[in-house]
Fold these 2 entries.
Entry 1:
Amino acid sequence: MLMHSSVSSSASSFNCSSAESDEVFSEGEDTASKRSTMRRCRSWRTFLTMMQWSVRRQSSWVQLAGHQGNFQLSEGGEVLKRFSEVEAVCLQALMADPLRPFVPQYHGSVNRGGNSYIRLEDLLSGLKNPVIMDCKMGVRTYQEEELTKSHTKPTLRTDMYQKMVKVDPTALTVEEHEQRGVTKWRYLQWRDNTSSTSTLGFRIEGIMMENGSVQRDFKMLTPAKVTEALLSFTKSHLHILKAYHSRLQALDEALKESPFFKAHEVIGSSLLFVHDWTSKASIWMIDFGKTTPSPSTVQLSHDVPWAEGNREDGYLIGLAALTSLVGQAISQAACRQEEKHGEETDSVTHTLQEQEHTQTKSQGGQGEAAQNEGTSD
Ligand SMILES: O=P(O)(O)O[C@H]1[C@H](O)[C@@H](OP(=O)(O)O)[C@H](OP(=O)(O)O)[C@@H](OP(=O)(O)O)[C@H]1O
Ligand SMILES: Nc1ncnc2c1ncn2[C@@H]1O[C@H](COP(=O)(O)OP(=O)(O)O)[C@@H](O)[C@H]1O
């Protein structure tokens, strides 16, 4: 789902502010005075509406991936995400962890219209026409419980069967076609195997460019294809790629120091890359809905392949691959820049040579003319 908040939260949703409601008509006020008060109220309303509009335009909030209807935009640079106990517990712990600078600020929960929400810092706040990329981390996006459930208590999902049919009907067995359903584990595993999740330890879930165009469903199994996507996402801007590279390296350092990371199996969590053309670029850890404490008997290393029962998520495998591919994008962008610079220099040299040539010719002509003049004297 993609939701442009700047449009949805337009002036029409604006309520009379306290400044306006202060202007209450008193009994017996004469008509002229009422008119003048109304005029003042209208201009206040217009002014405040414009202020509200422009402040909201600062955050053109979009939801690039995830569950439709899970988010609401809130006042004061916050977004509200549908409450999940698992996620709330993680966020609470992360606020006192070395990973805190990499996680949106968590402000507890709130009730809206009978539903509970988690209050999160809006990571797009202050960015102008943001460019966003959601990378889902890890070598698998399903919890081990999902696998167990698929053996012991399989529930067939028609929606997931249909999503598979739409992409590749041949991926389904005859039995699955007959049942017109697959388990959630089967679907998630298929998604992992048909993307770079299983091989690289991450996948690009979606990219939104500054004009609002969104690309999802990347068929990117090869590192070269991912590098290509990174170059297109950053328009090969070296300073943006370098900022991302440093942030990934800093995240790696923080993960090594993090008691939270040591003790949790991080499944289905994303890194949200955000930048705009005023050179603000950052990366944030989001979505802890499937991040759970690892059993006390298991010591996770996060950098070895998953095997049933070992609980490994492969988060660091993905982070290393992603960092290395951003590094490759930097090298390629630098090469392209040099080539472009070379071409520009060539063209400048060529122009200068041409100018010199023309000048020499015309000077030669002038000399001749002067000589002729001299001789005619
Ligand atoms: O992205 P597509 O291919 O559409 O598949 C989605 C994602 O895997 C979701 O994971 P995430 O939240 O990490 O994006 C998952 O939510 P869960 O978090 O519940 O596993 C959805 O399961 P359902 O919510 O059961 O439909 C599943 O349908
Ligand atoms: N704090 C935030 N600030 C800005 N955008 C966010 C924030 N959290 C999530 N998003 C947007 O919402 C999308 C889905 O978020 P996510 O937490 O993964 O939801 P879900 O649990 O439904 O999968 C992200 O890809 C991103 O575009």
Note: Residues 1-57, 365-377 have pLDDT under 50 and may be disordered.
Entry 2:
Amino acid sequence: MSANDEPAGQQQTGTYHSAFLKACRREPVPHTPVWFMRQAGRSLPEYRKVREGIAMLDSCMRPDLVTEITLQPVRRHNVDAAIYFSDIVVPLKAIGIDLDIKPGIGPVVENPIRTRADLEQLRALEPGDVSYVTEAIGMLVRELGSTPLIGFAGAPFTLASYLIEGGPSRNHERTKALMYGDPQLWADLLDRLADITAAFLKVQIEAGASAVQLFDSWVGALAPADYRRSVMPASAKVFRAVEDYGVPRIHFGVGTGELLGLMGEAGADVVGVDWRVPLDEAARRVGPGKALQGNIDPAVLFAPREAVETKAREVLDAAAGLEGHVFNLGHGVLPNTDPEALTRLVEYVHEQSAR
Ligand SMILES: Cc1c2[nH]c(c1CCC(=O)O)Cc1[nH]c(c(CCC(=O)O)c1C)Cc1[nH]c(c(CCC(=O)O)c1C)Cc1[nH]c(c(C)c1CCC(=O)O)C2
């Protein structure tokens, strides 16, 4: 890609030449870039303070708060990218689904989607439904300067699980019952979710996000053949829909060791890996032409500094032969993590990988 092909937003802000976007494009980097899933949130006292008395979903609709919360970990940890503060259920709320995020539980849906008639709840998402997102990203891009902003959305399978189960689920039994029991209804549901997700990512990219991550957090519950048949077409539709913007597309899930190849095939530029598969092995499973993101176990941050650094060293060593590596945790920052441990980890990775 020549300089003239730089996506317009990245050209204006200078983010194009950031270590994060270079690593996503599998170009040489001055140091391994680092960011953390859930870097904004309860691990930070300054987050708990600004969120006091404000419900999670309400905070997601206030551009001033979203901007402040998104910037907090960037100021504190010197991470190489910001991630837009929101939640995967925000676009569903925006099209009128009756849902809430219950503290300590997660998203809870009032009228779960289980029949064809229920599909009517899922109308198309228009940019005007999420004007607060456009506004917040405009503010953020100005504040962030050359630090890239990652936009994100939930993937069709993970969203479907919340919508069908009505809340968080360990076994996804109603979800799988629908997937196996009524393949046509399942396909139609995932297709609608793909359109909503794609529209939501487009809003974020057009407002100035320089990369996007699709969170398919719970897809590791599926066997590869079922993923390929019943889920991959919808996720691939999302990636295709945003391909022409030229911004890196990251694809992440938990417990996806057996799915890594297919998740890359679905259309990602960067495949997120949890801590269960070392990155050199993950690279073999994903194949050439893609960068990897990960993959320190978030629980390791609770161990003494030396143990964290040993683990970080192992991740960097496993990533040494990769085409591109974005350092991250294997899943989100746990709420009781000591923020100092995160700051030190960023410093350590930057130092150890400086070239
Ligand atoms: C599965 C999922 C959800 N939400 C998300 C996912 C995919 C990522 C993953 O696998 O962790 C995505 C998400 N949710 C949130 C972000 C913020 C951006 C960032 O990474 O910093 C992101 C990327 C904020 C949030 N989303 C939520 C919080 C906590 C609510 C609060 O602070 O009051 C935050 C900071 C709520 C939420 N929302 C969800 C859960 C499971 C929870 C936790 C419930 C709880 O333990 O209280 C659904």
Note: The mean pLDDT is 96.
